[in-house]
Amino acid sequence: MSPPSAASTALSTDHYELTMLQAAIGSGTAGRRSVFELFPRRLPEGRRYGVVAGVGRALDAIEAFRFDDDVLDFLREQEVVDAATLERLAGFSFTGDIWGYPEGEVYFPYSPLLVVEATFAEAVLLETVLLSVYNHDSAIASAASRMTMAAAGRPCIEMGSRRTHEEAATAAARAAYVAGFDATSNLAARQRYGVPTTGTSAHSFTLLHDTERDAFTAQVTSLGVGTTLLVDTYDVAEAVRLGVEVAGPSLGAVRLDSGDLGVLAHQVRRQLDDLGATGTRIVVTSDLDEHAIAALASAPVDGYGVGTQLVTGSGHPTCGFVYKLVAREGEAGAMVPVAKASTDKVSFGGRKHALRRLGADGVAEAEVIGVDVPPPDDGNDRPLLVPLVASGRVVGREPLEAARDRHERSRAELPLAAQMLSRGDPVLETVRL
Amino acid sequence: MSPPSAASTALSTDHYELTMLQAAIGSGTAGRRSVFELFPRRLPEGRRYGVVAGVGRALDAIEAFRFDDDVLDFLREQEVVDAATLERLAGFSFTGDIWGYPEGEVYFPYSPLLVVEATFAEAVLLETVLLSVYNHDSAIASAASRMTMAAAGRPCIEMGSRRTHEEAATAAARAAYVAGFDATSNLAARQRYGVPTTGTSAHSFTLLHDTERDAFTAQVTSLGVGTTLLVDTYDVAEAVRLGVEVAGPSLGAVRLDSGDLGVLAHQVRRQLDDLGATGTRIVVTSDLDEHAIAALASAPVDGYGVGTQLVTGSGHPTCGFVYKLVAREGEAGAMVPVAKASTDKVSFGGRKHALRRLGADGVAEAEVIGVDVPPPDDGNDRPLLVPLVASGRVVGREPLEAARDRHERSRAELPLAAQMLSRGDPVLETVRL
């Protein structure tokens, strides 16, 4: 596995972060200790729970957040900020502390997903890149988790790279894996993150050859009888017959990518069984989402390939996380809780702590948020904030498998209503102490 | 402006492209001349037109599509493909020809946005990365175009970086600019593509200071009276009064980020005028989309900052473009049109040509597609396919301003119904000759 990209992330930043820094240097407030919190005000409409993803990528982004010479030259030439600010940026590295929900954990409205404590100067600069990573990756994981739940143990394969930005594609494959997908088509996700990849073939491969027989023969010869043949380029029944003839009854799988997948799956299963190919699997693709997956529960389907709806968060491509200053050093040196006062955008000042309240039966009962002090643990509860960065050093990195395992466990703890795909309220109430 | 990133794009690729290549090498078909077409089967539901964006980024991605040693080592160690395929990949560079709709042009169902002619080996490898770039960037530009049309000349500022993947953010800022946005908050978009950036300040900046007066004073002192003050942290009327007191009547602008923006804008305009700050602009932000922008048409608003809805394509985060083999060399050496036969996914074989049919009054009347031969031009028409890559050399690169200008012209040619934000049919019919 290759190390995280060394490309600087410093310009994945909004203009105003740098100009706020400049103004804060001017007013002597840039060095004030500050606590920022990254949190959702709500879940996407109708969703029962959300899934935290992107933690590992965010840690990579923090380490790569530095102002190299080309970045500084750009900022100087374009007069984005003044000389004093450039000087501060030249030496920048994050030296503060960050706690957060570990990757794969589920979340609810107002869960304090990240608590960033540093000078204002350091903490404000990370605003955009942290939000970008978390808003994207968690949206994908939240959708993916519903899909793997609907699939009820049948493997799900992420195939959506082509329907989203090429770099978002790789992050989406990673997030889907955290939420229980088994593999991806995206090769960069395998190289960077070790996500298993798999692939079948496209209609173009069949059309390239003079006959479907030529195409199947070419694929089986090159990739072995365990390969997956795409059988809907011309006539499905004829292709299934031909596939078993070419590969033998040990043919790995066939893929259906169009038509009424439920009906076709039954027909194809019967045909495969009649041909003696009882072990040949049926993989379906074609605009699947969690509802389509659930609707195929009684069909003889052995795997789901999901594309567009996965990488677009199944109707909710972003989480709406915000990053707010909740406390900062006052004139006397003590920390002061702060919050925006007006109107419709509710924030709560003060440094947050959080735990998942669990019943004696191990079922989750509430998301409990403590302000300034940790909420009391009744013995079964799980603290949700873990150290991610300590004095600027990343301490929260873990293998992706750990996040994947955590997600499976955290989801299993939720009340049964979490399994409902219909619209409804979050399955846990957020209690603020 | 910096050159395009030199990072290889070769693994922004689906696994099956490489295994199809391996199988095609095996069957002796990898070298067959092939024509692939990138096109939409439909517009997003209810949309009147789409906007092509990402052309320049796609050309960068093609140039960066090469298999460096680390990529080859990865593919070898992971046994993704066999030795013969690795050897072919090691020397890969695209040597074929590509024609396409120029950036900023509008499109309709079945518009042949890209025509890629090369060997199967070369053309199939570009499938995922071309689709990723086009599907993302065009989705953003299509939404952005509706927003700038609704804004009717008032400036639109792209502020959505935090709500999407950090690299998608930069591409979104670029695409929005093509579709008429005036600026972005995203600094990387300025560095890479020369998109103008702008910024105001966040609630955190006000909250960092002991008083709102301290914050405004700090901002005006550092950034000048032309700056934009955020006035909704505590009480809007008091903040407006204070802002003019601190900056004087030449205060550049105030930003409203919450509440009933229409009502507030009227109140704030009256207050600013009463204070003599008649030139101070009012910028509104807060979950705007094209409908919210249109609803503010009669309010005294001087600029719109758009975030989430822009970077998520205002309900349509991807375009659903597909990349299909439409013709390939037959046994006798002649090109043979090909298409998938079955069921619900309609494709049309054969190499496409396209023109925009224009009436004598300059108004667009139809999208005319010719199969194998160019459709006849009645004199007013505009051919839509231009050379982008010739024998592997990029020939279609142009300044981003050219794409921006083209979009403005192409949109202006459309029938008036293109300006309707309500759901409806595409404003031009696609005619296949």
UniProtKB/TrEMBL annotation, chains A, B:
GO CC terms, sorted: cytosol
Keyword field: Glycosyltransferase, Ligase, Phosphoprotein, Pyridine nucleotide biosynthesis, Transferase
Organism taxonomic ancestry: Bacteria, Bacillati, Actinomycetota, Actinomycetes, Propionibacteriales
Protein family according to the UniProt entry: Belongs to the NAPRTase family.
Protein name: Nicotinate phosphoribosyltransferase
Family matches, as SUPFAM superfamilies: Nicotinate/Quinolinate PRTase C-terminal domain-like, Nicotinate/Quinolinate PRTase N-terminal domain-like
Post-translational modification: Transiently phosphorylated on a His residue during the reaction cycle. Phosphorylation strongly increases the affinity for substrates and increases the rate of nicotinate D-ribonucleotide production. Dephosphorylation regenerates the low-affinity form of the enzyme, leading to product release.
Molecular function as annotated in GO: glycosyltransferase activity; nicotinate phosphoribosyltransferase activity
InterPro entries: Aldolase_TIM, NAPRTase_N, Nic_PRibTrfase-Fam, Nic_PRibTrfase_pncB, Nicotinate_pribotase-like_C
